[in-house]
Amino acid sequence: STAICSSFALMVSLLMVLFVIPNQIEVVEERLDEAARGSLSGLGTTIIDPLLTRQYEFLYYRIDTQLAADENWKRVRLTTDAGDQLYPLGTWSSTLQPAQRLISVPIGTPNNRLGTLELVIDHQDAIAESLRLTYQLSFILFLLIVLTMAVVVLFLQAAISRPVIGLTTAFKKMQEGDFGFDLPYARSREVSYLIQEFSRFRRSTQGYQNSLIQLKESAEQANEAKSRFMSRMSHELRTPLNSVLGFSEIGINSDAITEDQRRQFEAINQSGHHLLDLVNEILDLSRLETGKLQVE
Fold first, then answer.
1. Which residue has the higher pLDDT, 113 or 191?
2. Closest CA to 15 of 111, 145, 121
3. Taking the CB of the first residue and of the last residue of the chain, which one, N or C, has fewer CB atoms within 10 A?
4. Cα-based torsion angle of the residue sequence 172, 174, 176, 182 in order, rounded to the nearest 10 degrees
């Protein structure tokens, strides 16, 4: 998350450096030129009277004062309408450095033009200061974007990620049989609704599971009662069967009975043995259900 925030802020800063700052330099230069032209026009207005009255000392003083007041002004030339140079008294260099610009304004009115003021100005220091402030602002903006995105990410984690992780943990705990795990608190309305629905689902699932447990216990109790009944019934049946088998064997081995009676005793003996086998199988089944009999 932090890497995403930093990447986004860096992208915004690069866009500013590549597109905003170059356009800003052009705008700053235009504004500085307009301001310099306005100042130069104001200077021309103040020197009209000295120019008309030929008070050149005051005229030179005004120009020298203006040059000293603005460090971006490099040199000024004043020429009359006839082309005579009144200022400076020395030579005037018309060669411009790469960062210098020439601005000229007329003195007087269109019908009565007195001369021309020419100014060589260099905005390099002003633009450098503007760029420095822009870079500082970009850095502050970068930090603000990173902090804002970090706050947004933390808020999303608190509002969505953490509740969803807690809800996932509650699912796992419910799978393990723990229905009492505390559900997370969610600030988001949608996530809170999801947690409420899961809470209802967990309560209903717990109710179904308790019902199944009760049914299982009831079935086990009924099965145990059935096993006890079958065991007791089998024991109760074996006692009279042993008597029947014993008397039938005595009758079969007796010499005082007829052949027809012996066949009847043999039928009784066979039926008794068959019934005894059934009783023994019932006993084995009940022992198998109770775990007292192991099948190899």
1. 113
2. 145
3. C
4. 80
Q: Which residue has the tokens 């925030």?
A: 5
Q: Where are the alpha helices (DSSP H) in the chain?
A: 2-15, 21-46, 48-53, 56-69, 124-156, 162-175, 189-253, 259-290
Distance (Å, rounded) from C-alpha 146 to C-alpha 9?
6
Q: What is the per-residue pLDDT for 119?
A: 92
| Matching residue, tokens 């007292």 | 292
d(CA 273, CA 227): 23
Q: Tens digit of pLDDT for each residue in 219-234?
A: 888 877 777 777 777 7
| φ/ψ bin of 59: left (φ > 0), alpha (ψ from -120 to 50), beta (otherwise) | alpha
Q: What is the pLDDT of residue 176?
A: 82
Beta bridge partners of 101: 121
Q: How far is the C-alpha of 156 from the C-alpha of 162, rounded, in Å?
A: 9
Q: How many C-beta atoms surround the C-beta of residue 42 within 10 A? A: 12
Q: Tokens 């460090």 map to which residue?
A: 71
Most distant pair of Cα atoms in the chain: their distance: 182
Q: Nearest-CA neighbor of 199 among 228, 175, 171, 176?
A: 171
pLDDT for the residue numbered 26: 76
